[in-house]
Each structure stands twice: as C-alpha cells, then as structure tokens.
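quick one: iron/sulfur cluster bound model?
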Amino acid sequence: MSHIGGKFYGYTGKSAFIDLTNRTVNVEPADSKIYHDFLGGRGVQARLIHDVIKKTGGIKNPLGPDNRIILGTAAPNDTLIPTAGRGSCSFIGTMTCSPEAVPWIPGQRPLHGLIAHSSCGGRFPNVLKRAGIDHLIIDGKADSPVRILVEGGKVRVVDAEDELFEVVDGRKTVRTASAITDLLSRKHPKSSTVCLGPAGWNKVAYACLTADYHRNFGRGGAGAVFGSKNLVAITASGADQLTYFNQELFQKLGREIDELIKGHVGDPSRTASLRPTAGTTWWLDRAFNGGYMGKQGGYLPWHNFDEGSFNPDDYAKVSTAAFLEISGKHKVCNRCRHIMCTRAAEVTGGVYAAAAVRPEFETIALWINCCLIDRDAIFYLNHLCNELGIDTMTFGSVMAGAMELHEKGFLRRFENPPAFGSGPDMVRTIKAISYQSDPLGKMLGGYSDRVISEVGAGFTAADLPEIARCLTTAFGGLGYAGIEPKAFPGMFTAYGTSNRGRGDHTYAWTVQAEEGGLEGADNLAAYVLAGQEGKALVDSLGLCDFYTGDVTSEQFLSLYHALTGFEYTENSMKACGRRIYALERHINNIQGRTRSYDAYVPPKLTVPLSSGALKGRSADSALYNKTLDSYYEKQGWTNDGVVRPETLLEMGLSS
Ligand code: SF4
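yep, here:
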C-alpha cells in the first residue's frame, strides 16, 4: 500500500533492512498502513520487531543475532515543532532478563528480555532523516567489527577502522564515545554519529548508545546489543529537504503551536517555566523539600531506596542550586526551542575537573541514593557514563545494590567493593564494569538475577533472600527511577507496568496528580493507563517528554495532516497509542512477562520510610494488587496480564 499518489509526506518513505551477517542492505519503500496505524518512531519499530518475534516465537537471548535493533524517526522530526528532534531505538532489552528459575522470587516465571524503546535527541535523528532514511532495521551479527554509513539515501556496511580501537588492560576494546565520534566526524564532515562505548563493546547489560557526544539512547541496553552484533557506530549525513502535504498550512499552524509552547514556558505557574534554567534538576528541590508550589518533599531516595529524606546540610551540597552553580550555556537537541532543558556544565578544579553537560535529575537522584553527596563527583561520573557508554540510571540502581551488599559483608571475596557515599569507589567501579577488567566489574555488568546467583555462590542458601533483598533490580528490573518507589502508589503502578521494564518512570508519571489528591485503585489505574498511551504517541511522533502541547488536540491533528496527509480524530489518534502499547505488551507476553513480573514487590520496599514528610509510607502490596486488577480490566487484558487474541484482532494485529 503506498501513500497519497504513491508519495510520502513528512516521512522519507524509505526503510533500510540491514543484515550484518551477510553484510547486505535492502532499502525498501515503507508500508503506508503501518505508518498510519503506528505513526512512526516507537510505534513503527514495535510493529517491525513483532515481525521477528512472530517468526522466532520469541527472542531467548537478547545478545544473540536474532535480536533486531531499529533506529529511526517520525514525520515531525526536523520540522519547526518545538522538541521535534527525538529519534527512537527499539530492541529486546538485555537488562530485563531473569531466564533461569530462581529460589528468591516466589512465583517467578522465566523472562527473556522486554521490548525496550529509548528516545534520543542531539542531531542524529534529524540528520538521519536528512540522509534519506526513516528507519535502519538491523539484523544478524557481523563476523568482524563494522560500522554503518548512511549518506544520500544509500546505506553501507563498512569495516570498522583499527583506529576506533585501543588496548586497555591488555584487551582490545573500542575507544570512548567522544574519541569514536571525533574520528568519524573528521572522516565524514557535517555528519552525525551514534556509537557504543567500551561498556557496549563488552556487552554490559545496561550499556547505552551515545549520539553527538552527550545524547543517549539510554535505557535497556542498546549498547550491549550493538556490541553483540560487532557494530561500533552509525554515521549519517545528508541534506534532503522534508516534503509537506500542505507546506503553507503547516507553516501557519506550526507557528501557532510554537507560540502556544512559548506561552507555556513563559507561564510561571507551569513547570515548563523552570526547564530553560534548571532543566530537570528543579525536581531535586521538589523531591527533597517540596520547594515548589507548596508541596511536601520527602521522596528523594537515599541509601538504596530505604529512605526518602536525609540530612538537609548534605542535601544542600547536591541541590538544584548546587548544580545551577556549575551550569553554562544551553546545549539543546537539534530544533529544540523554548523548553531547552539541557545546559553545558564545567568543574574547573580538583580531581573531577572537566567540561561536559549538567546531569539530569534522575541521574543525580539515583546517585544520591548511593549516599553520594559530592556534586563534582556526580558531574564527573555523568561525563564518564557518556564516554564509556553506560546508562546512568540503571548504573545508579546497580551501584546502590552493590554498596548494600558490601555493607552487609556479601562482597568480601572481591577486592575494593564500593562503599556508600564514595565517589572514588564509583569511578573505579564504573571503569571496572565498562572494561570488564576485574571480577567485581565482570559480575556487576550482568542482569541482576545472575549477579545474585554469583554473589550467593559464596554463601549458604539461607543467605540468598538477604542477598536478593539488596538488589531492587531483581527479577528483570530495569532499575527504579529517582522518585522514591515507596512514596506514591500511582507511581509504583507506573513503575510496575511500564512496557520497558520495572522501574521505568517515563511511560507514565503520576507525582503531581497524586500530590493533588489522586487516589484509589481505579483512579490510579486509569491515570497510569492514559499516561502510558499518551507517551506511546509522543515517542511515536518524535517529540520529547517535555513537549507541553496535546498531540490529540484538533490543532495538532490539523498540523499533522498538513505534514503527512494522514487524517486522525482525537479518538483515532488515541487508538494508535492504545494499539502501540498493546502490541508492546503482547511482545512482552511472548518474552515471558505476565502478572507475576508486574506484581513483584522488592521486599525492601515494603519497609516504611522512617522519617521525613512521607514517614510511614511503603509499597502497599494489597493496594497495588487491587490496582493491577483494575488496570488489566481497563486494558482488556486477562487477569494474568496477557493481551487477549481478540483484542489484538480488534486492533488490526495478529498474534
Ligand atoms: S526539552 Fe531538553 S531533552 Fe527535550 S528536546 Fe529540548 S533539549 Fe532535548
């Protein structure tokens, strides 16, 4: 099925199917029906991953050659819509695994990795589009290191040059992400590169991809999947102009939307007004002491999620203001206007001196959760994560777990285990993990149930529950985000039901609503579900989480029609979000996800907070289970969390 008059608008209309095993590339016209029903970005990628899952019956090993990884864009990318510079990367995640039967999780069923979607800004997504390709669909495994080059609608698989590698601790590994980007930028002027770092090359379960030096396809393990395929980098360059269904109308409506977003940012009663200065770090003050809008804080995690508050004098060292002190000029994603959350940052003296970017709230929060109250160390570790190709958030959760294991004496057979609060320990450990250079680093680079098994091998079976208790990432967890998971039952539901894995905060966000009084199982379930479907739309339209407009409004749908020629109503656009979310869940069902995964509550989260404004709160298993019942019912899934075949058919999908 081709698009209007055989021509695509907004999209390039071309997808590249790349088989690394045979080093072949087929550039094919896109299927218009898929683009209509799944929009672009995350949605189209879920649909294309489902093709593989259907054929294989599921991916048993996310590091195997049959794990398809896709990078691509959506129609709004590279237009004047504010924040329309976010690209998508989808694959089966390497962290969300628990494939062996384990005794420390009652009711555990084998899990082989969940569908992961990561969104990334910078220049890469828009440059890929200018290079003439919507999606790069990558299968197989190269027999020696390769990279991919996309230029003027042509895609080539080429040998990765020796200069992209170095020897560290006697082993050949890729250079840091900035060194790879520098080398490829020199070779391909005006290009943009996305690449793995040493962690991805060494297949660390939470290795990310880094684009344009400091933007990341962060969560899920995209870097490890690249490493498993012997794929080092993708470089794109091109100057293709976008085609519009109705360019004049698009420009007019686009200017109106631009004014709308500008107005949101200029309104001091909106959180958007804080983005251009404090970015996401304004959440630090809000989560710690409720410094905004008269709300209480007490939910900034501390000591591996045991508490939501700690000494205010310590907090002052890592507060919103502390990070503002080192913030410089804006360093925003291509085509971002008004919201502009990212700023350069610099530490000019001491062992952590560097010029880089300011860390995000979630990163800072999760390293405060390691009791690290050293701003400069947090800044430097963030820089290291970009260089080594590590997801800052999962690294934070894994590290807090390792610190508690050490505190309880379970890591005594390892040299130099990390202690709570130590920046030097975290720097040493992240290098050991990334380069897989010592036994502790090798162990901590795997998914969590493997870590628990390996730690437990040195102890008795009776110690296993206590060992498992230290790792909140057990049972295929992605790692909780920076809002204390005990604090809000709605947020706990969002964490527990996110398609990309337990702990993800981006698919639904309930904090303001719960602070405003949202409560009750049915209301929480409905709110989370609506958030998840809305986020599926935003990701599939190539927009940022911080886009403040409504993508189901008449204004946006008219704009989208002027761009693509596709017509939607509010309901039919919402149906796309529902379809995308259900398809991802169906893929996850095939990968082994059922209610047993969603319902798992890490035991330490049932211990109430002992201090702070939210003293007494804990994960309430009874309320959570009731909320899950309601959530599945509203989704039309079975009570075991499985998407029904008839639901798939209704949505135009087959199992
Ligand atoms: S708001 Fe921030 S993350 Fe979003 S597009 Fe702009 S700079 Fe990028």
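The two ends are 22 Å apart (CA to CA).
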